[in-house]
Amino acid sequence: MGMLDNKKAVIFGVANERSIAWAIAQALHKEGCELAFTYAGAALESRVRPLAESVSSKVILPCDVTNDSEIDAVFENIKQQWGSLDILIHSIAFANKEELKGMFVDTSREGFKLAMDVSAYSLVALAKRAYPLMTNNGSIITMTYYGSEKVVPNYNVMGVAKAALEASVKYLAADLGQKNIRVNAISAGPIKTLAAMGISGFKDMLHAVENKAPLKRNITTEDVANTALYLSSSLSSGVTGEVIYVDAGYNIVGM
Ligand code: NAD
Ligand code: 0WE
Prior knowledge:
By secondary structure, the chain is α/β, with parallel strands linked by helices. The chain has 7 helices and 7 strands. The longest helix is centred in the middle third of the chain and has 22 residues, at 109-130. The structure holds nicotinamide-adenine-dinucleotide and ligand 0WE. Nicotinamide-adenine-dinucleotide binds next to helix 1 and strand 5.
């Protein structure tokens, strides 16, 4: 008997087997949850489809979150195939590479808009379509990072987008609480995924965490997935609008 037997989850943000969203998908699957996956464009389908099929997923759909009609199609499909939805995992972020180096003051208007659209507004756009399907309570989970609250060199416009994402979590939680839908964020420490590739100094950040964090180690996607499982299940039935740190305790240390 699994903790999520008869539950249905849609997962946004698997790019490959290193993705945080993939670890979360596996943890939910182990507990008996049925899964739907989306991929961010044709180029990723060949990566995502085999992963999804390995956890018996039958609903695998394209979804670039900057495109409202693709988002509509995902939830139309879920409505047709499942009739209802219990869990939504949002594990998506994007900024142009040039915005993730140099000075924040040089952020372009277009770069700011794109980072905000993909990394923050997308949670609102997905929640808007998901909540009518969450008829028997629900849990919406997104991924954030400490750079939303403290200045992390080079995180730049992504820090501003994550601040907007975290504020959106609170406003969504306030709206959807009356429908018994909970909305929370996980603030993960740095992990070497595709989204960390080519970030200069990423290795040094991993070493800084090992030295400073109370647990004296970096976190894994499995650490994040365990907290996502808690937030997906009734174990967290009284928790909404929160940011939960899965960062080996890094954020509590002053020096
Ligand atoms: P990842 O590259 O595996 O996942 C990012 C996902 O965003 C990819 O699947 C990509 O396809 C998707 N995406 C980008 N643009 C999109 C668009 N327009 N439409 C739909 N999908 C789009 O990397 P990850 O580290 O697993 O990142 C997942 C989440 O975790 C992100 O929100 C990231 O900010 C957050 N996070 C990552 C770390 C880290 O150090 N890796 C730490 C804290 C939080
Ligand atoms: O949220 C993130 C990464 C988000 C991200 C990464 C990329 C790299 C490739 C968004 N957009 C892009 N665009 C690309 O073209 N993290 C929390 C990981 C991360 O990224 C950083 C970090 C950390 C930590 C960037 C600079 C400094 C620290």
